[in-house]
Amino acid sequence: MYDVIVIGAGIVGTCVARELSKYDLKVLILEKENDVADGTTKANSAIVHSGYDAKPNSAKARFNVEGNKMMEDLCRKLDVPFKRVGSLTIALDEEDMSTLEEMYDRGIQNRVPDMRIIDREELLAMEPNISPKAVGALYAPTAGIMGPWELAIALAENAMDNGVELSLNSEVKHIEKIDGGYRVSTDDRDIDTRYVVNCAGLYADKVHNMIASPEFEITPRRGQYFLLDKSAGDTVSSVIFQCPTKISKGVVVLPTVHGNLLVGPDAENIDDKENKGTTDERLKYVKETASKSCNKIPFNATITSFSGLRASPDTGDFIIKEVDGLKGFIDVAGIESPGLTASPAIGKYVVELLKDIDGDFKENKDFNPHRKEVINFMDLSQEEKHEMIKKDPRYGRIICRCENITEGEIVDAIHRNAGGRTIDGIKRRVRAGMGRCQGGFCQPRVIEILARELGIDVTEVVKDGLNSNIAIGETKEQI
């Protein structure tokens, strides 16, 4: 019997799992997809929010501010990119300035540090490409940017380094109460556990309803984005929010930790929890709306557009609690924005809930909070590069020319705990295929490396999900 099963390997589930790995427990993560961070976590704005937006005394406000304080140290320990670039919520008229005053007051109630309202002159000095119509802004220096899927992958890896098990392609089909805990059933096995933590994202309501009466409903809220080339990465230097109106919170313009420019998202409630398509209509809206805050966005430098789905709860706030009458069954649901920022604090809080329920969690004396260093070959000095190539010549072979990713980096990403097993899995771990050509040149080589390292045929390598095969056979194959 396991001590804890965590359902879902997104940013929240992996935060919970890593926090649990600090204790002498038998822990299993069940993930229905073919990789870690393959849901909402892989397609979001990657913003570390300061915390002024959430309603005071809400769970969102509490965990946002706490998570913001924890994020930098967590990213440092796990070797994940993070930059505290600050955010600017801009006002385009005097009515907007009044709204900024309200947001500032809310931030004070939420205990967000170091905020201030700045005038047009200071704003333009900070962001020369901002709209000439801007009259001021709310500046929050504690906001930042990071790699969301990189953090979830790193959390899963570090949790596994510390004893946690991960089972991919393991969709939960049924849960029942048994003596001493729960029986969780997937397609191919039944697993007994003392406790369950439901971090199933868009499907958290479905998982909850397997064992309890319905209490909440999750609606998928789709947001669409433009990702621009690194040539556009210095258009802005901080996260640029628009002042919210009665009908819209606007669209964000921000740099990414890897030097690109990200624009989006819109917000559209849909019915299909798997519909990650983009539409001309909504992308046009994103472009037009973003141009109100920055009219110098070079959209002709767009390298891809994409969408992500947020798990929007009908409660209006995060749902983090033990289900009534079900000892040790914890719902962690409705973790929409600012869920990424809040995730470290949520993970810690959930484990504290379980400790209070159990009363006898013993510390894992061998817990290592650091994961093995990730080698970014192009960031090394010339001397370090020469030494690396001497040790492993694969670091001397460039596979992805857009992002300058070597074969050695790809091989390392495959063989780590929670390692990449798919084309997109490698893309998320080392950025091979993230550049201007979006894998047009490097994808065949990535496929070859995956096949070789995993001991499978190239026709078995998939893009992401189990049935997303790329190659079907040899060209000019003799029949």
Short description:
This protein is α+β, with helices and mostly antiparallel strands and 479 residues long.
Structure description:
The chain is α+β, with helices and mostly antiparallel strands. It has 12 helices and 22 strands. The chain has helices at 11-20, 59-78, 94-109, 120-126, 148-161, 204-209, 280-290, 339-358, 382-391, 407-415, 423-430, 443-454, and strands at 2-7, 27-30, 47-48, 82-83, 87-91, 116-119, 136-140, 144-146, 165-167, 174-178, 181-185, 190-198, 218-228, 239-242, 252-255, 261-264, 268-269, 302-313, 319-322, 329-333, 398-400, 405-406. The strands form 5 sheets. Strands 1, 2, 9, 10, 11, 12, 19 and 20 form an 8-stranded mixed sheet that branches. Strands 13, 15, 16, 17 and 18 form a 5-stranded antiparallel sheet that branches. β1, α1 and β2 form a beta-alpha-beta unit. It starts with a strand and ends in a 25-residue tail after the last helix. The model has no long low-confidence stretch (mean pLDDT 96).
Features:
479 residues, alpha+beta, 8-stranded mixed beta sheet, 5-stranded antiparallel beta sheet, 12 helices, 22% strand
The DSSP helix count reads 12
Overall 3D form: globular
Structural Rg: 23 Å
Mean pLDDT: 96
* Strand-pairing-aware structural class: alpha+beta
How would you summarize the topology of this molecule?
Elements: E1 2-7, H1 11-20, E2 27-30, E3 47-48, H2 59-78, E4 82-83, E5 87-91, H3 94-109, E6 116-119, H4 120-126, E7 136-140, E8 144-146, H5 148-161, E9 165-167, E10 174-178, E11 181-185, E12 190-198, H6 204-209, E13 218-228, E14 239-242, E15 252-255, E16 261-264, E17 268-269, H7 280-290, E18 302-313, E19 319-322, E20 329-333, H8 339-358, H9 382-391, E21 398-400, E22 405-406, H10 407-415, H11 423-430, H12 443-454
Parallel strand pairs: 1-2, 1-12, 2-9, 5-14, 12-20
Antiparallel strand pairs: 3-8, 4-8, 5-7, 6-7, 10-11, 11-12, 13-16, 13-17, 13-18, 15-16, 19-20, 21-22
Helix pairs in contact: 1-5, 1-8, 2-8, 10-12
